[in-house]
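Example 3.2
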Amino acid sequence: MNKQVLILGGRGRIGNSVVQDILAHTQAEVTITGRTAGTVTDNQRVRFMVLDLMEENKLRNALASSHLVIHCAGPFHYRDAKVLEFCVEHGVNYLDVSDHRSFTIKALEYHPHAMNAGVTAIVNTGIFPGISNSIVRHDIEQFDQAETIHLSYLVAGSGGAGITVMRTTFLGLQNPFDAWIDGKWQVVKPYMQREIINFPPPYGNSGVYWFDMPETFTLPKTFPKIKNVITKFGSVPDFYNHLTWIAAHIFPQSWIKSKFGVEFLSSVSYKMTNITDNFSGIGVAVRSQVHGYKDGKIATYCSNLVHNNTAIAAGIGTGSIAQLLLEDKFSKPGVYPVEAALPTDLFEQAMESRGVEISSNWI
């Protein structure tokens, strides 16, 4: 009997990418949920279910008959960890594509409960966070002692992720956040300290800015000897960066912190990217640079990944871990961010099987 996977929010761009990866790389049967009925499909391994996350009894029944639940119903800024709680109660493994610190903190509180229940739960499993965290783990393992992590992300246009990526961006501008700098937590304002990073083709030199990501919080905890964790994000074309900076620092805070303001800005931005995507593409670039000591000398190690579709890359990040769990190749009871759970050898095998190239070298 094929294993059952329940994908919450599987009709969105990223959720659908997760679905496609699982169908391509496993024999699992997939149930896709949404708040409205899904389209008809000829694939006998796929079925649709109308489900609102507020329907707790229906949610419990759906996940109780599943081997794995994947939570793709973002944005996660507003979400509680109810789905994870129910999975722990029913002994069901759990993944999500969450991308916000507040949700990550809520989820990690269930760690001891998941351990006791024998449930493997991994949060932040997309492209960034997700694949990016595993790249950092790989890079840190090259050192005798790593000290500084510098992560840079670049998304072209909408990233193929629809309006969700716009909401995530503007929600990330709402508040200053704590970053691990010089071995202590320091407050950083979002979309400040522009830095030009040389990404691989087709992007080249591009601007990135401080941005609050879950790994800003999780990497220092996973690697306690690290002294600095820098996470910066930027967009292509570059004028989107300047518009985002204006939204973060010129617009009234009451505007950027209101749900109406976020929805308005997201809607306008999405309409703009519908035009610019035609020449910018919808790809993503991830660059990890780690500084530290190797053989008694100061050293720097750098890894780069480029993919032509951000949403598909996110689906690969989540789908690859789903495959490992479904095939019983990996188990780690508890709640973890990706870098604290997934061994590098399994990560590299998963990326190779999907044709994802990551270039790495000492600088």
